[in-house]
Amino acid sequence: MIFVTHLLIGAVIDRIKGVPIGWALIGSALPDLIDKPLAMAGVFDVYHSIGHSFVSVICLGGIVVLTKYGKLIFLGWSSHIALDLFQIAINGRFTDLLFIFWPWLQSPSPLALPPGAFVFYYLGSPGFFVEIVLWVGIVTKWAQTRLLWRLPTQSFVLQ
Ligand SMILES: [Zn+2]
User: What is the domain count for the chain?
Assistant: First the structure.
């Protein structure tokens, strides 16, 4: 998924949980905010590494116990990884799913595109169209909620 879709899902989780601050939104951003700079700096040769590994999810599970809003960060983080796994699967890059086992297992031929080049690769893929449906559904639901909330209640009197 593209970065803004992860943020959207994090915001939806925050909205569902009734938290205005955006802890799930922060959690949904962290895997990419950690891994993309590391790959761009040449620390790792793949764009899904420590932030996308199940190891980070397990460590994050420990933080959940310690902090008040850790559960929301964990939910956002987990949603990011689940959506990345889903997108890679529907795009048919099954060996790339091994990123979840980083550093022990890695894809023999990872996509390894930097964020800008990834967007051009991604446009037109099956995952892109699923993402469009996701956006349309969420924006439609949001618009319905906003419009229904703002419409004055009218009573019709039959004459
Ligand atoms: Zn990601």
Answer: 1
